[in-house]
Amino acid sequence: MAAAGGAGLPAERTLEGEIALAAKRAGRRAEVRRKTSETDFALTLDLDGGGRGEAKTGVGFFDHMLAQIARHGLLDLKVRGRGDLGVDGHHTAEDVGILLGQALAKALGDRAGIARFADARVPMMDALVHVALDAGGRGNLVFRGTFPETRVGDFETALVREFFWSLATHAGVDLHIEVLYGENAHHMVEAVFKGFGRALRAAAARDPREGGVPSTKGML
Fold first, then answer.
1. Which of 100, 137, 152, 153 is the most buried (most CB within 10 A)?
2. CATH number for 68
3. Is the Cβ–Cβ distance between 45 and 104 less than 8 Å?
4. What mean pLDDT do residues 96-105 have?
5. Domain count, the chain
6. Which residues pair with 78 in a beta bridge?
7. Do 58 and 186 contact (CB within 8 A), yes or no?
8. Which has the closest alpha carbon to 82: 25, 115, 39?
9. Is residue 150 within 8 Å of 158, Cβ to Cβ?
């Protein structure tokens, strides 16, 4: 007997279920590259991965932070390339943020069926960070917080904001980050990246009850 609205398919194989299964099998993946006179990076992303992160940007602590996004966002991320580190790390962080934002926008597609809104409150030792985001297609960043040190290893803490600004504006994500408190800059920065990964994971998750675009407008 056909299920209601199933176009003749058995109850356990409705049209909606077949579409969702096909989308799941296809995955949400993207490959992007950016080459300028200052940087040359390639990035691959699987939004439905298993948390595997491989980054070689030339900035060790930044690589470690990108791996945090992958692990806590349960996405697969690979970044390879070089930047003008003889100047500083600004262009590297900025351009990797642009690429990750572009890849997220491609992988999310029309954003139909996703949860869209999510937030995460992440503690790390002395630090506490709150990250909230709306993956609704409009890029924006609100960043509130300061770090007690200007560097963590080979990474400038001022580049945290620059990276997420580039990411948010190119991904079409309204991103709010609050560093609520902390004493150790390493802990504070790491909590930010972990928090973003957790919030993105929840916002990009497919909601089985959401058949279309999560907006009263009917589009994002």
1. 100
2. 3.30.230.40
3. yes
4. 98
5. 1
6. 44, 54
7. no
8. 39
9. yes
